[in-house]
């Protein structure tokens, strides 16, 4: 790690602290995620989902993992550096973002999701803190919970932050899929448009209540499997009709409300796929390509609303507790090609 100069801590998550750092050899600004627990072998590091899934992702809207370094039993991820996250952009804002900004951001995230879902992965922990922003580019980060769709259920370990957690996960379904990411995106889109979380539950039961308050409780027509899941855990849905989503988001366009309603469908099968969302009327005429990934001739990238010096300062307030739902199960076994693995002294490096 001598090659890197750590400048400032920019994030503190459950599993790691993230630093802005400089690669002393080439002056490049990078993000260094220092994992909190110790790793006693490189094989153990290589079996981490974050490593396995991020190494396979190559998309302009997915944060790049440049190197993995284990030194003195401490694991470091060297990633491309992003200025701030969407939660930081929202938290001190009073005036809602323009719908065109939300459209451009979400278009990029749905492109990343379409890419990863088509390759058989889903993220499982989408939340504003994991959507990173630099200028007008948005990237998906934190693949600590990413799953291979083909890996066998049951998925029983802790999954996703409560406010963005899909109802099938709240009701302890053990066979959910990429539709959980679509639910989270509905909640995130609504939050970006109103600056208020759509379902800010204070517990798992309150989370379901908050969902019922907005979209009404499910029934035999809207989600028969949900009723069975609830019955299996002896849970009774509150009998509530729910506010219209358009009432909760008074200034949003009808296209935005329509998209969020379909993303936040009780039944995961009724939620659109990421690739379908890109065709939705909300994104009509949206062929948005962020300046930073456009060909050189394009002008300088515009700074998104709210990103200033403050965008990177301060620690991220934890908005919700992240307790485990139940015990964990070993990760699915995927082989890692050792071709890019090198050992120098006692330090192991993995170059992407
Ligand atoms: N590449 C990056 N560039 C800049 N900041 C980053 C980067 N990656 C992460 N961060 C910041 O660090 C925070 C924590 O990172 P991350 O979510 O990867 O950690 P974690 O321990 O897995 O967190 P969680 O508790 O959400 O699981 C992010 O919310 C973000 O603000």
From the structure above, extract its key features.
352 residues; alpha+beta; three-stranded antiparallel sheet; seven-stranded antiparallel sheet; binds adenosine-5'-triphosphate; Phosphorylase Kinase, domain 1; nucleotide-binding
Description of the molecule:
This protein is of the alpha+beta class. The protein has two domains: 4-80, Phosphorylase Kinase, domain 1 (2-Layer Sandwich); 84-283, Transferase(Phosphotransferase), domain 1 (Orthogonal Bundle). The chain has helices spanning 42-46, 49-56, 86-91, 99-118, 167-170, 179-194, 204-215, 224-232, 245-248, 254-263, 274-277, and strands at residues 4-12, 16-23, 29-35, 65-71, 74-80, 84-85, 121-122, 131-134, 137-140, 147-148, 341-344, 347-351. The strands form three sheets. It has a seven-stranded antiparallel β-sheet with strand order 1-2-3-5-4-12-11, covered by helices on one side. A three-stranded antiparallel β-sheet has the order 6-8-9. A two-stranded antiparallel ribbon has the order 7-10. Helix 4 runs antiparallel to helix 6 and helix 6 (179-194) runs antiparallel to helix 10 (254-263). The two termini are 17 Å apart. The model is unreliable at 297-318 and 321-339 (pLDDT under 50). Adenosine-5'-triphosphate binds at residues 10-11, 13-16, 18, 31, 33, 63, 79-82, 85, 129-130, 132, 141-142, 144, 316. GO terms for molecular function: ATP binding; cyclin-dependent protein serine/threonine kinase activity; RNA polymerase II CTD heptapeptide repeat kinase activity.
